[in-house]
Design a protein that fits this description.
single chain, alpha/beta, 50% helix, binds NADP nicotinamide-adenine-dinucleotide phosphate
Length: 244
């Protein structure tokens, strides 16, 4: 596919890395000279062009701008009905994107994670997902959201990643006080938690980890009694309501 990127920043650099080398022609906007040049130097199928040339040379357009600048940037550009637009902008709804890119087709909003670059990463998506699956599956997995409200709920819930990582980091820090090879200690915990979560749904895993009096049950009950579940729920609710 002829694929263009408007806004060559942190997340679209990862998207381009995930797309490159699979038979697509990829043209990225020149504005961030460092990031666009780095992608063109790294991948033979990536070239750099000014914004209008990105549109003129592409059929699928990714919008990787900050949502606040998108109206002004896109107003200067000529979209075409052949364009299929995928927005990665967190702050713009699909309807808002459609209004900015007419007469092009605003196909979907997608929220990737940096791991899209290497594959094996989840992608949250609202709108049509066929194009996203064509571009990114099976290397990455597209999760379809039914509405803007669902996407917003997923955006809140995905923030569990940081406290989850923090818990593993804290446990690794504690372990480091008791073992000689601290690097191995953290690697072990990351391996254990990551592979376990990938291998099983949560409910059966919790059941399997619920041996009466066992280490897992005792630590989980200690944490829940200390407010872990209640604080997590309250934090998610605060995110949903616009607080922190
Ligand atoms: N970072 C993430 O993990 C992530 C995940 C999902 C969604 N998102 C969303 O993705 C969007 C980009 O986020 P980001 O973290 O990648 O930010 P970023 O690195 O700042 O990327 C935005 C890019 O847009 C460029 N830009 C600004 N004005 C432009 C113009 N007139 N023409 C062409 N390009 C222009 C910027 O160039 P300059 O640097 O030269 O200003 C920058 O490279 C945001 O809407 C964000 O909500 C981010």
């Amino acid at each position: 596919m002829r694929t263009g990127i408007l806004g060559t920043g942190t997340i679209t650099s990862a998207v381009v890395s995930g797309l490159a080398g699979q038979g697509h022609d990829i043209v990225v906007s020149a504005r961030n000279a460092q990031k666009s040049a780095a992608l063109a130097a790294r991948f033979a199928d990536v070239s750099v062009a000014e914004n209008q040339a990105v549109l003129d040379q592409s059929d699928v357009i990714f919008l990787g701008l900050m949502a606040e600048v998108a109206p002004a940037v896109l107003a200067d550009l000529q979209f075409n009905p052949r364009h299929q637009v995928i927005s990665v902008m967190a702050g713009a709804t699909l309807d808002e994107v459609a209004a900015l890119v007419g007469p092009a087709d605003a196909v979907s909003v997608m929220m990737p994670f940096p791991g899209i670059a290497d594959g094996g990463s989840p992608i949250m998506a609202l709108g049509g997902i066929e194009l996203l699956n064509t571009l990114f599956a099976p290397r990455n997995t597209v999760y379809s959201m039914g509405s803007a409200a669902e996407l917003q709920a997923y955006l809140c819930a995905q923030a569990v990643l940081s406290p989850a990582v923090n818990m593993v980091a804290e446990a690794a820090g504690w372990l480091a006080e008791h073992v000689s090879d601290t690097t191995q200690g953290e690697a072990f915990l990351r391996h254990l938690v990551g592979s376990s979560l990938l291998a099983s749904e949560c409910a059966p895993m919790l059941e399997a980890l619920n041996t009466p009096g066992g280490y897992n049950q005792r630590l989980r009950e200690h944490m829940v009694e200390a407010g872990l579940s209640a604080h997590l729920r309250a934090g998610l609710e605060a995110l949903k309501n616009g607080g922190g």
